[in-house]
From TrEMBL, chains A, B:
Cofactors required: Zn(2+)
Protein name: Guanine deaminase
Signal peptide residues on this chain, from the entry's feature table: none
Organism: Parolsenella catena
Gene name per UniProt: guaD_2
Short name of one Pfam family: Amidohydro_1
Keywords associated with the record: Hydrolase, Metal-binding, Zinc
Length: 425, 425
């Protein structure tokens, strides 16, 4: 008998489109061999023999994908929030990341990161490590043990990293190949992703070699794009040949539907079209973009263009790990952008924020981010009974409140990735 | 023996100015008869006989004042976040507030509000009720029982409230007098505050009568000011005689150092000078101002001018009750304001946000918001041990992290108001 087949009964809620949400009170979400067989108002006879988990009145929603987070920065989230991107990198981030040359530091730090991520609403994540091969493998070991599904990248950076955090170009490429060989076939749900830090940290020569490796080994790619005006100006100086910052990646073949580019706040028309045409994923990181004084990305425009967009907490640019907080932040900054930057782009709705956190980012992992039939069965069960109100609320209203108030009384009681239950203790 | 005299030992942290914070690791915060006798590195001999509460390594900080919050809106926080101010008022707020004509609804709703506020980091609050006298008295009864110190207002609104939420002018004034007579001498730490909702809800005639009552009975005042461009335009139509929106209150003598005006996002030079010259308090409500698409107030400018400024959660314009979240939001939006609106006004620091939440808003209650000698002994004890990191952190870094990560593992373990311990169960 397959223990990966079962039924969850509760108040089910998931997006059927970016704008629309289906809610079924007292519904049945059916998992067969780790894949959703659909959500039903009455349990179909053919599933009657499956074990049933009665979640009572709790909310059942799709798992959430955090498609941009820096594992080594978890150690200093909430600190040093007084600087802009480039100064913040030099003052806080690079010195912290240099510690990961020491495996015992990495062990302590990644142990905390992995166990906190395990207990968070995140089911899948696209993760930056550091440039250190040993520490990155250790991170992958720990993430594999959580049961979550992740992409993890050894970071490449062969310029502008300062004394303790800069690789030799050839060594960076060689280390990357060594790392990939080490981790090949080592994990069930943890996979490598090619990770040039960002153009200011990676020479054209290394960028070309990383693109070769990604192509040869059919690997996905993650990096940063158009986060901050000073960064954008710097890339223009570093790559005078490029038509836009995005072109500094695309020129090497690094954009496409298996690439995540974080931020994309200052993408002009050329760059937006490049991202759209290549199917590149935009990781929207609303809290980080506020905390590092970067700005607010035009996510409404990206959605309207049918682009691939998801959410990232971008710890430690963003301090908070919770994808619910990330959703609330996405809605809030979209309203400020409407008011302060461009009234032609309406704010995001909470429904759209839920879509970004689930199906939007989830699709980077395949058929992930919905409870509709055929999707990997990634699910969260949420207890909102301590978020009290005298009102009678419908399922959607309860979930809407949970997005804003998860941290004030919400409780994640169960979590599944491809039908496997995650230990939340 | 006075049980209101004791010593707290732990990592003490409080502002000595808006920009500066004093931290004493393993320090002694001394409370004598409910008033701070100071914070010491070694316990002075004269306090050696006082009972000592050893808080170990926990953080000890001043209590926090939420100087703008709507108790009746607590029931729908996190809902209906898709509208701007005026539509939100008509669609969500006014219909909800109309329920408070029913004392049994008010009983259920205010029971939840008061008990959640009791367990929050807030020690003092300036609170809007509804226009209903009975419900407002019930709210005051419940707040008194929490042990917190609050100002609570019966709301006045004799125009533009719609069918179920609009008072007759004479009745509004008479109800206010009846309410004030009912609550006179009824409470130790719960006091009435005159509360014209905002100019669009209050005729000039009623505004004048409220000003008379405030003057006769020496009462403080709270209202809203310059929150939203449509609101500001409306006030210009309603009070064509006023030099600015603020003048629509000042004309009646309603501004001054015992008045809180929430928001002040769109205050022009005339209005800012009016607020400064009168010593009126600005309640900065960063999350609400984002969620209702209002904008971002120029708090840096108000601080530079030496104005009275504090923080408000403005539930339910803001969804979150936590003053730590409010601080983090204040810093975040100040960075977006710097980037998107006015690069001449630097962002707020976390130190300044702490000052706003403690001494800034606290001074509305008298000598409140610091652990320095002579202040009312309002204090919080915070356990940050579950906000794990592999780093060694100093006291200020721990507190800085707590501001951003309170909701992800922080725990309020003790709370005092004027030396009286609050039940957090």
């Amino acid at each position: 008998m397959d223990t990966n087949s079962f039924v969850l009964k509760g108040s089910v809620c998931y997006n059927t489109s970016p704008q629309e949400v289906r809610c079924v009170e007292g519904g049945y979400a059916v998992c067969v061999d780790g894949v959703s067989a659909g959500v039903f108002e009455q349990l179909p006879e053919r599933f009657a023999a499956l074990p049933l988990v009665d979640c009572g009145d709790q909310l059942i929603v799709p798992g959430m994908s955090d498609i941009h987070i820096h594992a080594p920065q978890y150690a200093f989230r909430g600190l040093g929030m007084d600087l802009e991107l480039l100064d913040w990198l030099n003052t806080h981030t690079f010195p912290e990341e240099a510690h990961y040359a020491d495996p015992s530091y990495a062990e302590r730090a990644y142990d905390i990161f992995a166990s906190d991520l395990r207990r968070s609403p995140t089911t899948r994540a696209v993760v930056f490590g550091t440039m250190h091969v040993e520490a990155t493998e250790l991170l992958m070991d720990k993430l594999e043990a959580t049961g979550l599904a992740t992409y993890v990248g050894k970071v490449n950076m062969d310029r502008n990293g300062g004394e303790n955090l800069e690789e030799d170009t050839a060594q960076s490429a060689a280390d990357t190949r060594r790392w990939l060989s080490d981790v090949a076939d080592r994990y069930d749900r943890t996979a490598p992703i090619i990770t040039p830090r960002f153009t200011p940290s990676v020479t054209d020569e290394l960028m070309a070699q990383l693109a070769d490796i990604a192509r040869e080994q059919h690997l996905p790619v993650q990096s940063h794009l158009s986060e901050n005006p000073s960064e954008c100006g710097w890339v223009k100086e570093l790559c005078p040949w490029s038509s836009c910052y995005g072109d500094a990646y695309d020129h090497f073949g690094l954009l496409g539907p298996r690439t995540v580019m974080a931020h994309c706040i200052y993408s002009d028309e050329t760059e937006t079209e490049l991202l759209r045409a290549t199917g590149t994923y935009v990781a929207h990181c609303p809290q980080s973009n506020a905390q590092l004084s970067s700005g607010i990305a035009p996510i409404r425009r990206y959605l309207d263009l049918g682009m691939n967009v998801g959410l990232g907490t971008d710890v430690a640019g963003g301090a908070n790990l919770s994808m619910f907080r990330c959703m609330a932040d996405a809605v809030a900054v979209s309203k400020l952008r409407w008011r302060l930057v461009d009234e032609s782009l309406p704010a995001l709705t909470t429904q759209e924020a839920l879509w970004l956190a689930t199906a939007g980012g989830g699709s980077f992992f395949g058929r992930v981010g919905s409870l509709a039939e055929g999707y990997e069965f990634d699910a969260l069960v949420l207890d909102d009974s301590k978020i009290r109100t005298p009102r009678e609320l419908g399922v959607w209203e309860r979930l809407e409140r949970y997005v804003y108030l998860a941290e004030e009384g919400g409780s994640l009681t169960r979590k599944y990735v491809s039908g496997r239950q995650i230990d939340l203790s």
